[in-house]
Amino acid sequence: MKEELLEVSDLKTHFPIQKGILKRNTGFVKAVDGVSFKLAKGETLGIVGESGCGKSTTGRSILRLINPTSGSVKYKGKEVTSLSKGELLKLRKEMQIVFQDPYASLNPRITIASILEEALSTHSIGKDKKERREIVLQLLEKVGLNRQLANRYPHEFSGGQRQRIGIARAIAVNPTLIIADEPVSALDVSIQAQILNLFQDLQEQMGLTYIFIAHDLSVVKHISDKIGVMYLGRMVEYASKDDLFSNPSHPYTQALMSAVPVPNPLMKKERISLKGDVPNPAAPPSGCTFHTRCNACMEVCKTIKPKDIVISPGHVVSCHLYDSAYN
Ligand SMILES: Nc1ncnc2c1ncn2[C@@H]1O[C@H](COP(=O)(O)OP(=O)(O)OP(=O)(O)O)[C@@H](O)[C@H]1O
Asked: ABC transporter domain spans which residues (predicted)?
Protein backbone atom coordinates (compact mmCIF):
# COMPACT_ATOMS: atom_id res chain seq x y z
CA MET A 1 0.00 0.00 0.00
CA LYS A 2 1.21 3.51 -0.82
CA GLU A 3 2.31 5.80 2.00
CA GLU A 4 -0.18 8.62 2.54
CA LEU A 5 1.48 12.01 2.28
CA LEU A 6 -1.24 14.63 2.37
CA GLU A 7 -4.76 14.72 3.78
CA VAL A 8 -6.85 17.83 3.26
CA SER A 9 -10.18 17.94 5.10
CA ASP A 10 -12.94 20.50 4.70
CA LEU A 11 -10.46 23.25 3.83
CA LYS A 12 -11.98 26.73 3.70
CA THR A 13 -10.32 30.00 2.80
CA HIS A 14 -12.61 33.02 2.89
CA PHE A 15 -11.31 36.51 2.12
CA PRO A 16 -13.02 39.48 3.79
CA ILE A 17 -14.56 42.02 1.40
CA GLN A 18 -13.71 45.46 2.74
CA LYS A 19 -15.39 48.58 1.44
CA GLY A 20 -15.04 52.35 1.96
CA ILE A 21 -12.34 54.43 3.64
CA LEU A 22 -13.02 52.70 6.94
CA LYS A 23 -12.55 49.33 5.24
CA ARG A 24 -15.79 48.00 6.69
CA ASN A 25 -16.19 44.26 6.29
CA THR A 26 -19.19 43.68 4.04
CA GLY A 27 -18.94 39.93 3.54
CA PHE A 28 -16.56 37.23 2.34
CA VAL A 29 -15.27 35.80 -0.92
CA LYS A 30 -15.54 32.07 -0.33
CA ALA A 31 -12.55 31.25 -2.55
CA VAL A 32 -12.17 27.75 -1.07
CA ASP A 33 -15.27 26.42 0.61
CA GLY A 34 -14.85 22.87 1.86
CA VAL A 35 -12.20 21.00 -0.14
CA SER A 36 -11.18 17.47 0.94
CA PHE A 37 -8.84 14.90 -0.63
CA LYS A 38 -6.03 12.47 0.14
CA LEU A 39 -2.78 12.08 -1.75
CA ALA A 40 -0.22 9.27 -1.49
CA LYS A 41 3.53 9.71 -1.92
CA GLY A 42 4.56 9.69 -5.58
CA GLU A 43 1.03 10.40 -6.85
CA THR A 44 -0.22 13.35 -8.88
CA LEU A 45 -3.50 15.08 -8.20
CA GLY A 46 -4.72 17.29 -11.04
CA ILE A 47 -7.01 20.16 -10.01
CA VAL A 48 -9.03 21.64 -12.86
CA GLY A 49 -11.70 24.29 -13.19
CA GLU A 50 -12.41 27.68 -14.73
CA SER A 51 -10.70 30.88 -13.70
CA GLY A 52 -11.66 32.05 -10.21
CA CYS A 53 -12.94 28.69 -8.95
CA GLY A 54 -10.33 28.62 -6.17
CA LYS A 55 -7.57 26.38 -7.54
CA SER A 56 -4.65 28.68 -6.68
CA THR A 57 -6.09 29.56 -3.28
CA THR A 58 -6.39 25.84 -2.51
CA GLY A 59 -2.72 25.30 -3.42
CA ARG A 60 -1.52 28.33 -1.49
CA SER A 61 -3.61 27.46 1.55
CA ILE A 62 -2.07 23.96 1.66
CA LEU A 63 1.42 25.52 1.66
CA ARG A 64 0.24 28.19 4.09
CA LEU A 65 1.31 30.97 1.76
CA ILE A 66 -2.24 32.03 2.70
CA ASN A 67 -3.64 31.11 6.10
CA PRO A 68 -6.83 29.07 5.62
CA THR A 69 -9.97 30.09 7.51
CA SER A 70 -10.73 26.57 8.75
CA GLY A 71 -10.25 22.90 8.01
CA SER A 72 -7.25 20.65 8.25
CA VAL A 73 -4.12 20.01 6.16
CA LYS A 74 -2.14 17.01 7.37
CA TYR A 75 1.30 16.46 5.84
CA LYS A 76 2.92 13.17 6.92
CA GLY A 77 0.33 13.14 9.70
CA LYS A 78 1.33 16.58 11.01
CA GLU A 79 -1.21 19.42 11.11
CA VAL A 80 0.15 22.18 8.87
CA THR A 81 -2.43 24.81 9.84
CA SER A 82 -1.12 25.04 13.41
CA LEU A 83 2.66 25.05 12.73
CA SER A 84 4.83 27.84 14.13
CA LYS A 85 6.90 30.04 11.76
CA GLY A 86 10.06 28.01 12.45
CA GLU A 87 8.32 24.69 11.84
CA LEU A 88 6.79 26.12 8.68
CA LEU A 89 10.21 27.13 7.31
CA LYS A 90 11.43 23.55 7.81
CA LEU A 91 8.35 22.24 6.05
CA ARG A 92 8.83 24.63 3.09
CA LYS A 93 11.92 22.61 2.21
CA GLU A 94 9.63 19.65 1.62
CA MET A 95 6.75 21.51 -0.05
CA GLN A 96 7.56 23.74 -3.00
CA ILE A 97 5.55 25.70 -5.56
CA VAL A 98 6.06 26.30 -9.27
CA PHE A 99 4.24 29.39 -10.56
CA GLN A 100 2.46 30.02 -13.85
CA ASP A 101 4.67 32.95 -14.75
CA PRO A 102 8.21 32.16 -13.64
CA TYR A 103 9.42 35.50 -14.95
CA ALA A 104 7.35 37.36 -12.39
CA SER A 105 8.82 35.21 -9.63
CA LEU A 106 12.48 35.33 -10.79
CA ASN A 107 14.48 38.35 -9.64
CA PRO A 108 15.44 40.07 -12.96
CA ARG A 109 18.56 41.67 -11.46
CA ILE A 110 20.45 38.51 -10.54
CA THR A 111 21.77 35.63 -12.62
CA ILE A 112 19.98 32.31 -12.59
CA ALA A 113 22.96 30.78 -10.75
CA SER A 114 22.45 33.34 -7.96
CA ILE A 115 18.68 32.67 -7.92
CA LEU A 116 19.29 28.95 -7.43
CA GLU A 117 22.13 29.50 -4.94
CA GLU A 118 19.80 31.69 -2.89
CA ALA A 119 17.25 28.85 -2.71
CA LEU A 120 20.01 26.47 -1.55
CA SER A 121 21.45 28.77 1.12
CA THR A 122 17.97 29.60 2.54
CA HIS A 123 17.74 25.94 3.48
CA SER A 124 21.46 25.50 4.33
CA ILE A 125 22.15 23.15 1.42
CA GLY A 126 25.81 22.89 0.32
CA LYS A 127 28.70 23.53 2.72
CA ASP A 128 30.16 26.53 0.86
CA LYS A 129 29.75 28.69 -2.26
CA LYS A 130 31.85 26.31 -4.38
CA GLU A 131 29.72 23.30 -3.48
CA ARG A 132 26.52 25.28 -4.03
CA ARG A 133 27.74 26.34 -7.49
CA GLU A 134 28.35 22.71 -8.42
CA ILE A 135 24.82 21.77 -7.21
CA VAL A 136 23.41 24.64 -9.32
CA LEU A 137 25.18 23.38 -12.44
CA GLN A 138 23.84 19.87 -11.86
CA LEU A 139 20.35 21.29 -11.33
CA LEU A 140 20.49 23.12 -14.66
CA GLU A 141 21.39 19.90 -16.43
CA LYS A 142 18.65 18.04 -14.59
CA VAL A 143 16.03 20.42 -16.03
CA GLY A 144 17.51 20.30 -19.53
CA LEU A 145 19.47 23.57 -19.53
CA ASN A 146 23.12 23.90 -20.50
CA ARG A 147 25.38 24.62 -17.51
CA GLN A 148 27.05 27.37 -19.54
CA LEU A 149 23.86 29.42 -19.17
CA ALA A 150 24.34 29.76 -15.41
CA ASN A 151 25.56 33.37 -15.53
CA ARG A 152 22.73 34.66 -17.68
CA TYR A 153 19.80 36.76 -16.44
CA PRO A 154 16.12 35.67 -16.53
CA HIS A 155 15.24 37.99 -19.47
CA GLU A 156 17.76 36.17 -21.65
CA PHE A 157 15.62 33.01 -21.59
CA SER A 158 12.49 31.95 -23.47
CA GLY A 159 9.22 31.21 -21.62
CA GLY A 160 9.85 27.46 -21.64
CA GLN A 161 13.43 27.89 -20.41
CA ARG A 162 12.25 30.23 -17.65
CA GLN A 163 9.78 27.60 -16.53
CA ARG A 164 12.68 25.11 -16.42
CA ILE A 165 14.49 27.56 -14.11
CA GLY A 166 11.35 27.81 -11.94
CA ILE A 167 11.29 24.01 -11.74
CA ALA A 168 15.04 23.91 -10.94
CA ARG A 169 14.44 26.32 -8.08
CA ALA A 170 11.62 24.13 -6.73
CA ILE A 171 13.64 20.90 -6.88
CA ALA A 172 16.84 22.56 -5.58
CA VAL A 173 15.85 21.81 -1.98
CA ASN A 174 14.97 18.19 -2.76
CA PRO A 175 11.26 18.50 -1.90
CA THR A 176 8.70 15.74 -1.52
CA LEU A 177 5.62 17.68 -2.70
CA ILE A 178 5.44 20.23 -5.50
CA ILE A 179 2.36 22.32 -6.16
CA ALA A 180 2.51 23.37 -9.79
CA ASP A 181 0.10 26.28 -10.30
CA GLU A 182 -0.80 26.44 -14.00
CA PRO A 183 2.87 25.83 -14.93
CA VAL A 184 2.22 25.45 -18.66
CA SER A 185 -0.73 27.82 -19.25
CA ALA A 186 1.46 30.64 -20.56
CA LEU A 187 3.44 28.42 -22.95
CA ASP A 188 2.96 27.39 -26.60
CA VAL A 189 1.40 23.94 -27.00
CA SER A 190 4.64 22.33 -28.29
CA ILE A 191 6.59 23.71 -25.31
CA GLN A 192 3.80 22.64 -22.93
CA ALA A 193 4.42 19.01 -23.87
CA GLN A 194 8.17 19.34 -23.19
CA ILE A 195 7.57 20.86 -19.75
CA LEU A 196 4.97 18.20 -18.89
CA ASN A 197 7.50 15.53 -19.88
CA LEU A 198 10.11 17.18 -17.67
CA PHE A 199 7.67 17.09 -14.71
CA GLN A 200 7.10 13.38 -15.36
CA ASP A 201 10.82 12.56 -15.69
CA LEU A 202 11.61 14.38 -12.44
CA GLN A 203 8.78 12.58 -10.69
CA GLU A 204 10.27 9.23 -11.72
CA GLN A 205 13.82 10.21 -10.76
CA MET A 206 13.00 11.90 -7.45
CA GLY A 207 9.78 10.17 -6.34
CA LEU A 208 7.99 13.53 -6.28
CA THR A 209 4.34 14.03 -5.38
CA TYR A 210 2.48 16.68 -7.39
CA ILE A 211 -0.60 18.81 -7.13
CA PHE A 212 -0.97 19.99 -10.67
CA ILE A 213 -3.32 22.93 -11.24
CA ALA A 214 -4.69 23.67 -14.72
CA HIS A 215 -7.62 25.27 -16.50
CA ASP A 216 -8.46 22.34 -18.68
CA LEU A 217 -8.54 18.59 -18.50
CA SER A 218 -6.31 17.95 -21.51
CA VAL A 219 -3.30 19.37 -19.63
CA VAL A 220 -3.73 17.18 -16.53
CA LYS A 221 -4.94 14.10 -18.43
CA HIS A 222 -1.55 12.45 -18.93
CA ILE A 223 0.18 13.49 -15.75
CA SER A 224 -2.50 12.83 -13.10
CA ASP A 225 -3.37 9.75 -11.06
CA LYS A 226 -6.37 11.48 -9.50
CA ILE A 227 -8.35 14.49 -10.64
CA GLY A 228 -10.42 16.98 -8.66
CA VAL A 229 -12.82 19.18 -10.61
CA MET A 230 -13.34 22.49 -8.82
CA TYR A 231 -16.28 24.80 -9.15
CA LEU A 232 -16.90 27.85 -6.98
CA GLY A 233 -14.61 26.84 -4.15
CA ARG A 234 -15.63 23.18 -3.98
CA MET A 235 -14.57 19.93 -5.58
CA VAL A 236 -17.70 18.90 -7.43
CA GLU A 237 -16.12 15.64 -8.61
CA TYR A 238 -13.08 13.76 -7.39
CA ALA A 239 -11.90 10.44 -8.82
CA SER A 240 -8.99 8.49 -10.21
CA LYS A 241 -8.12 9.71 -13.70
CA ASP A 242 -9.39 6.48 -15.25
CA ASP A 243 -12.74 6.68 -13.43
CA LEU A 244 -13.16 10.34 -14.28
CA PHE A 245 -12.49 9.86 -17.96
CA SER A 246 -14.51 6.65 -18.30
CA ASN A 247 -17.43 7.88 -16.21
CA PRO A 248 -17.52 11.68 -15.90
CA SER A 249 -20.54 12.15 -13.68
CA HIS A 250 -21.03 15.77 -12.65
CA PRO A 251 -22.60 17.87 -15.41
CA TYR A 252 -19.72 20.35 -15.03
CA THR A 253 -17.09 17.61 -15.56
CA GLN A 254 -19.05 16.43 -18.60
CA ALA A 255 -18.96 19.96 -20.02
CA LEU A 256 -15.19 20.29 -19.40
CA MET A 257 -14.67 16.82 -20.89
CA SER A 258 -16.57 17.75 -24.05
CA ALA A 259 -13.96 20.46 -24.68
CA VAL A 260 -11.02 18.01 -24.62
CA PRO A 261 -9.90 17.45 -28.23
CA VAL A 262 -9.94 13.85 -29.48
CA PRO A 263 -6.99 12.67 -31.62
CA ASN A 264 -9.22 10.74 -34.06
CA PRO A 265 -10.80 13.19 -36.57
CA LEU A 266 -13.50 10.62 -37.45
CA MET A 267 -14.77 10.66 -33.89
CA LYS A 268 -17.05 13.63 -33.48
CA LYS A 269 -17.75 14.92 -30.01
CA GLU A 270 -20.65 17.13 -29.10
CA ARG A 271 -19.51 20.18 -27.17
CA ILE A 272 -21.61 20.84 -24.08
CA SER A 273 -21.89 24.56 -23.55
CA LEU A 274 -22.47 25.99 -20.12
CA LYS A 275 -24.98 28.76 -19.58
CA GLY A 276 -23.83 32.15 -18.29
CA ASP A 277 -20.71 33.04 -16.33
CA VAL A 278 -19.26 31.43 -13.24
CA PRO A 279 -21.28 32.83 -10.30
CA ASN A 280 -19.54 35.29 -8.03
CA PRO A 281 -17.81 33.54 -5.09
CA ALA A 282 -18.60 36.65 -3.00
CA ALA A 283 -22.34 35.97 -3.48
CA PRO A 284 -22.80 32.33 -4.47
CA PRO A 285 -26.27 30.92 -5.21
CA SER A 286 -28.08 29.60 -2.14
CA GLY A 287 -28.64 26.03 -3.31
CA CYS A 288 -26.44 24.04 -5.63
CA THR A 289 -23.67 26.38 -6.71
CA PHE A 290 -23.87 24.96 -10.21
CA HIS A 291 -27.61 25.01 -10.96
CA THR A 292 -27.63 28.31 -12.86
CA ARG A 293 -25.31 26.90 -15.54
CA CYS A 294 -26.42 23.29 -15.69
CA ASN A 295 -28.66 21.74 -18.32
CA ALA A 296 -29.51 18.72 -16.18
CA CYS A 297 -30.05 19.95 -12.63
CA MET A 298 -33.43 19.67 -11.03
CA GLU A 299 -35.51 22.38 -9.37
CA VAL A 300 -34.32 21.14 -5.98
CA CYS A 301 -30.81 22.40 -6.79
CA LYS A 302 -31.94 25.98 -6.39
CA THR A 303 -32.53 25.61 -2.68
CA ILE A 304 -30.52 22.71 -1.28
CA LYS A 305 -26.72 22.32 -1.27
CA PRO A 306 -25.78 18.91 -2.69
CA LYS A 307 -23.98 16.38 -0.51
CA ASP A 308 -20.82 14.53 -1.53
CA ILE A 309 -22.04 11.19 -2.90
CA VAL A 310 -19.66 8.24 -3.30
CA ILE A 311 -20.74 6.65 -6.58
CA SER A 312 -17.97 4.02 -6.58
CA PRO A 313 -14.90 3.51 -4.36
CA GLY A 314 -12.82 6.68 -4.53
CA HIS A 315 -15.23 8.43 -6.93
CA VAL A 316 -17.11 11.28 -5.24
CA VAL A 317 -19.66 13.56 -6.90
CA SER A 318 -21.39 16.54 -5.38
CA CYS A 319 -24.66 16.70 -7.30
CA HIS A 320 -28.34 15.95 -6.64
CA LEU A 321 -28.49 13.75 -9.69
CA TYR A 322 -26.69 11.04 -7.67
CA ASP A 323 -28.46 11.54 -4.33
CA SER A 324 -31.12 8.88 -3.83
CA ALA A 325 -33.03 11.31 -1.57
CA TYR A 326 -33.94 13.41 -4.62
CA ASN A 327 -34.38 10.78 -7.31
N1 LIG B 1 -6.17 37.82 -1.62
C2 LIG B 1 -7.43 37.79 -2.06
N3 LIG B 1 -8.35 38.65 -1.57
C4 LIG B 1 -9.63 38.62 -2.00
N5 LIG B 1 -10.11 37.75 -2.93
C6 LIG B 1 -9.22 36.87 -3.46
C7 LIG B 1 -7.85 36.85 -3.06
N8 LIG B 1 -7.22 35.86 -3.76
C9 LIG B 1 -8.16 35.30 -4.55
N10 LIG B 1 -9.35 35.92 -4.38
C11 LIG B 1 -10.62 35.58 -5.04
O12 LIG B 1 -10.88 34.21 -4.75
C13 LIG B 1 -11.48 33.57 -5.88
C14 LIG B 1 -10.64 32.36 -6.26
O15 LIG B 1 -9.38 32.81 -6.76
P16 LIG B 1 -8.22 31.81 -7.24
O17 LIG B 1 -7.08 32.65 -7.74
O18 LIG B 1 -7.95 30.84 -6.18
O19 LIG B 1 -8.92 31.07 -8.46
P20 LIG B 1 -8.28 30.20 -9.63
O21 LIG B 1 -9.22 29.10 -9.89
O22 LIG B 1 -6.88 29.85 -9.28
O23 LIG B 1 -8.30 31.21 -10.83
P24 LIG B 1 -7.17 31.53 -11.94
O25 LIG B 1 -7.11 30.30 -12.78
O26 LIG B 1 -7.70 32.71 -12.66
O27 LIG B 1 -5.90 31.79 -11.19
C28 LIG B 1 -11.58 34.63 -6.96
O29 LIG B 1 -12.88 35.17 -6.94
C30 LIG B 1 -10.54 35.65 -6.56
O31 LIG B 1 -10.89 36.94 -7.03
From this structure: 6-257
